[in-house]
Every structure is written in structure tokens, then in C-alpha cells.
Design brief:
Radius of gyration of chain A: 20 Å
Order of helices and strands of chain A: HHHHHHHHHHHHHHH
Helix content of chain B: 25-40%
Number of domains of chain A: 1
Number of helices of chain A: 15
Strand content of chain B: 25-35%
Largest interface: A-B, 22 and 32 residues
Oligomer: heterodimer
Mean pLDDT of chain B: 91
Shape of chain B: globular
Largest sheet of chain B: 6 strands, mixed
Order of helices and strands of chain B: EEEHEEHEHHHHEHEHEEHH
Strand content of chain A: under 5%
Helix content of chain A: over 70%
Chain lengths: 327, 233
């Protein structure tokens, strides 16, 4: 394509829309409106980041994985072990280390796993996560084994903001800032030619081969970037809560984030936000109101979304808007 | 000078199934070739084999003198092959511009040159790929292939399912492409008239083999021969 119109089209794709400020405004507003729920809010932000990382591979590249918690756990254990064994408690460099470790795990496992597809790939991603979980359990002198590593503490963020054990104020804003930064990375990638080629791979892999796209290399790149972002999510989780245990590598976490993405809508950036907020708020409120039966309500809600909302709640919103404008 | 494309003793199919039997054909640089035959005789399989989408059981494939039969499909594309599949396979989530951009590589075929051939596409750049009509989608598929700046363009039944008026427009574009020179084109076509008018040389296939490789004019002039070859059992 000629350079100028192509650049204009690229710039138009990347242009910020006014409504894109809304999630961030809501995030800041929650800080002031719900000061007693900032610990919960931090968990929501971490989950959004985790779901966003999954969206890059599942929603954009079409790589179906059930083992994404492997990278969340890799990042979580990285900052946990750095703090516990080497006294490396500086939070920002910890995030970088977590991203690097999780990214390398993603790169190596992706290089092998992404030669397969379908059920084989699904099983192999699950196996990778199980292997890491078992490794974390076996090497207990390093990882704390089944008990994990409690009581981790981190130096103030930028040397200024102490982690607030009681009210989670610093943690919340820290998680929000990290999410914003990671979101900018994912958004830039999604709207770049690389992101478009991932969409092409998801929609027709043979056609992408035929236009000369190195499909495997691009899938592995996306997988590694996504793993690094999941690692950052895991690292923030550990820095905010001060503990890490085997649950960060568990199937429950991996399946949960997949459900969240399906609930919100995959391949559309903001699905992770909607899915995580709705899922976690529902989980929180239902479990308080109906301590013994809350999963029933959540399950029914998810079934309704799966049955009637193609591509999640955002997809449902699109369908309703189209119906409204057609009237 | 090496042939643009040369197949020798090619046996290929899907898994253990053999569809192509000892196929050999060569195409000079800038030459165009039509391949005709009944349904299921292996025409599309031949193109898919050149692109690396089938299982090759034997034989060799050369592109501009280089062996390519062991290369993965994307390396074949980078080496100079482009393929317009029967189903067009436009990326539904991408706009027309993105569909064009996705494989574009520098060379003779620029967006400006492609839009001279397909002015409709210029007007539709911001539209979704699947918002186009069947004819426009076909033109987008050809334009996308041209923008990869190939040495050899493989087209699989581009007129299939199109209205006669659109077929006419597409045929005139194909004629312009052939007249422009430099590009070798292999056209697989059910419509014998379109195929025979397109190129000076035609290959007829039957049961996975080439049963005729010669001047199109001879087939045009001898409808009985054409009917016999195409209807061969």
C-alpha cells in the first residue's frame, strides 16, 4: 500500500476514542468511592490484567489454552523467591524480572506447543501448567512447597509509597498504573500490523501461510508477550498480598480467567475489563448473600451468557445496539 | 533462463490418498497457462500442492530454478508464489485495506497499480472484507495476491459463482494482467471458454494426470477434441 494513506489508516486505528477513558475514570473513582474495598479492587485489577494477557493469545491469535496460569504463577513465584531468598524487594524491577521469566517460559513452551493445535494443544498447555505446579510443590526449599511463601514484604514503590497492608491504598493505585501500562502495550499490539496478522491467523491460518506470514513465529511471539503480561499480573498479585502459594498455578485460576474472558467478550480489549468486574463482583456479592449456594447463581448466569450472548457481554451490547439502531 | 515454475514427476494427495499421478509441467517466466478438466480430476489439488497444502509423495517442484517442495507454504510465498483460492478466503474481521496490507511486499505491484486494475476497491478501503459482493471479494483476493509481488500467480476458479457481467469484468482484468507481462499465471478454470481465451497454452487434466498440454487454439478449433479430453473417463 502507498505509505501515506496506510500510515493514516494506522493512525486512525490507534486513535483513542472518548469512551476509552471511562474504565480508567471508573478505576480512579472506585478508589475514592469504595475505600473499604480496595483489597478486593486490587484483585479485580490483577484479574483484568491476567484476562487481558489471555485475550492476546485467545482472542486475537486464536490460541486456545487452558494453562495460562503457568505464566501467572511463573511471575508470582519469581517475585516471591527473589524477595524470600535474595532480599530483592524493589517492586518495579521485580515486575521486570517476573515479565522476563514468564516471557521466557512462554517463549520456550510456545515454541514447542504451538506446533500442535486443537485438543492436543489444549492438553499440552494444561500439562505445562501441571508440571510447573508439581515443580513448585517438589522444590519446597525454594518455593515453600504446599505452604507457599507467606509474609513477603516489598520496599516502597519508587521509594515513596509504602505498601499499605491494612487498606491496600498503594496497592490499588499501583495495580491500576501497571494495568494502564500493560493495557497500552496490548492495545498498541492489537491495532498494529502485527495484531492484524494475529487476527488473520485466527481466522484463516492457511491463507496467512499463503500470503507469506511466518505463522508459527508470530504465534510464539504473541504467546511470549502474553506470558510476560500474565507474569506481571502474578507479580502484582504477590507484591500486593505478600504471599504466594500453589494456587497461583492451579487449574481453578486458569479456568476462571478463561470464563472471565468468555463472559466479557474475547478479542476486543475491553472484554477482560467487563468480564473480570462482573464475574468478581457477582462472586463477591453472591457468596456473601448465599454462602452455600452462590456458585449455583453464578453458574446459571454464565450459562445464560454462553447461550444468549455471542462473544460475551460486550457482544450482547453490540447486538442490542444494532437492534436499536435498526428500529 | 530457469523456468518460472517446473513440476516433475509430482505425486501428491491428502494424507495417504494419491490424487496427482506423475504430473510434470513447466511454465516460462511471463507465460500464462490454463488448466481445465472435470470436477475432481486434481486441478485444485495441483495448485494446493504447489503451495504446499497437500502431502507430496514424490517428484520435485522448482520455482525460478530453486527446489521448493520441502519448504513450508509461507516460505514458498516469500520465494515468489501467490495463490488465489477458490473460496477467496477474505479475512472477515479485517477491512479491505487490512486485507490488502496483510501480505503486501515491496515491488512492481503497489496499491496505486492495483487500484488501476480494481478501482472499486479504492472506494471500499474502510469496508469490512465480507461486506463486499462476491465479485468484489474475488477482486480483493486477486489484489491481495498481487501485492505480495509474486513471480507466479496461481488462481483457482476465480469466476466460480460470479454473475456473467462480473465474470466479464474479471476476464478483462486477467487479460490486462497477462498483457502487462513479467508475471507467470496459472489459471485453473471450469469455464473452458474463459480458460482457452485467457492463455495460449492449456493443460487438460483427467484422473490426476495431464492428458493434454498444448496450444489453446487447437482446443478452440476442435470442440470434439476438447469434449473428448474433458469428458475422458
Amino acid at each position: 500500500m502507498s505509505a501515506l494513506p496506510a500510515l493514516q489508516a494506522l493512525a486512525a486505528r490507534h486513535r483513542l476514542r472518548w469512551w476509552e477513558a471511562l474504565p480508567w475514570a471508573a478505576g480512579v473513582a472506585c478508589f475514592f468511592l469504595f475505600p473499604n474495598y480496595l483489597a478486593f479492587g486490587t484483585q479485580v485489577l490483577v484479574t483484568i490484567l491476567f484476562a487481558l494477557s489471555l485475550d492476546l493469545v485467545l482472542g486475537y491469535a486464536g490460541i486456545v489454552t487452558l494453562g495460562h496460569a503457568a505464566f501467572f504463577g511463573a511471575g508470582a513465584y519469581t517475585v516471591g523467591m527473589l524477595a524470600a531468598h535474595w532480599g530483592w524487594t524493589e517492586p518495579l524491577s521485580g515486575l521486570v524480572a517476573a515479565a522476563l521469566v514468564a516471557g521466557v517460559v512462554g517463549l520456550l513452551s510456545g515454541w514447542v506447543l504451538l506446533r500442535t493445535h486443537g485438543l492436543t494443544l489444549l492438553m499440552l498447555t494444561l500439562c505445562t501448567m501441571a508440571l510447573l505446579e508439581q515443580a513448585a510443590n517438589m522444590f519446597s526449599s525454594w518455593t515453600g512447597g504446599f505452604d507457599g511463601m507467606p509474609g513477603l514484604s516489598y520496599r516502597p514503590i519508587l521509594g515513596l509509597f509504602e505498601f499499605d497492608v491494612l487498606y491496600f491504598r498503594s496497592q490499588y493505585l499501583y495495580a491500576l498504573a501497571v494495568l494502564l501500562l500493560c493495557f497500552a502495550v496490548v492495545r498498541t499490539l492489537a491495532y498494529s500490523p502485527f495484531g492484524r496478522s494475529l487476527t488473520g491467523i485466527r481466522e484463516n491460518v492457511l491463507r496467512m501461510h499463503a500470503v507469506g506470514a511466518p505463522v508459527h513465529a508470530r504465534q510464539v511471539t504473541a504467546y511470549a508477550v502474553s506470558a510476560a503480561l500474565a507474569g506481571v499480573a502474578g507479580a502484582v498479585f504477590v507484591q500486593a498480598t505478600g504471599y504466594v502459594n500453589l494456587a497461583v498455578l492451579g487449574l481453578e485460576r486458569a479456568a476462571g480467567v478463561l470464563i472471565i474472558l468468555i463472559l466479557g467478550g474475547h478479542g476486543r480489549l475491553y472484554g477482560a475489563f467487563v468480564g473480570a468486574v462482573v464475574y468478581m463482583v457477582l462472586e463477591h456479592t453472591l457468596s456473601k448473600a448465599y454462602p452455600t449456594a452462590w456458585q449455583l447463581g453464578l453458574g446459571i448466569g454464565l450459562m445464560l451468557v454462553a447461550l444468549y450472548a455471542r462473544n460475551g457481554l460486550l457482544g450482547l451490547g453490540d447486538a442490542l445496539r444494532r437492534r436499536w439502531s435498526a428500529r | 533462463m530457469a523456468d518460472a515454475l517446473r513440476l516433475a514427476g509430482v505425486r501428491a494427495g491428502y494424507g495417504e490418498t494419491h490424487v496427482l499421478q506423475d504430473v510434470g509441467v513447466a511454465l516460462a517466466a511471463g507465460e500464462s497457462l490454463s488448466i481445465i478438466g472435470r470436477n475432481g480430476v486434481g486441478k485444485s489439488t495441483l495448485l494446493a500442492t504447489v503451495m504446499g497444502h497437500t502431502t507430496l509423495h514424490g517428484g520435485s517442484i522448482e520455482l525460478r530454478g530453486e527446489r521448493i517442495e520441502r519448504l513450508p507454504p509461507f516460505r514458498r510465498s516469500l520465494a515468489g508464489l501467490a495463490y488465489v483460492p477458490q473460496e477467496r478466503e477474505i479475512f472477515p474481521s479485517l477491512s479491505v485495506r487490512e486485507n490488502l496490507d496483510i501480505g503486501a511486499r515491496p515491488g512492481h505491484w503497489t496499491a496505486a497499480r492495483v487500484f488501476e486494475l480494481f478501482p472499486n476497491l479504492r472506494e471500499r478501503l474502510a469496508h469490512g472484507g465480507t461486506q463486499l459482493s462476491g465479485g468484489e471479494q474475488q477482486m480483493l483476493a486477486v489484489a491481495r495476491a498481487l501485492l505480495t509481488n509474486p513471480a507466479v500467480l496461481l488462481m483457482d476458479e476465480p469466476t466460480e459463482g460470479l454473475a456473467p457481467v462480473i465474470v466479464q469484468a474479471l476476464v478483462s482484468v486477467l487479460a490486462k494482467l497477462r498483457a502487462a507481462g513479467g508475471l507467470s499465471i496459472v489459471l485453473v478454470e471450469q469455464n473452458s471458454r474463459v480458460a482457452l481465451d485467457f492463455s495460449e497454452r492449456t493443460v487438460v487434466m483427467d484422473k490426476g494426470r495431464i492428458v493434454y498440454d498444448g496450444p489453446s487454439a487447437r482446443l478452440r478449433a476442435d470442440p470434439d477434441l476438447l469434449a473428448r479430453l474433458v469428458a475422458a473417463e
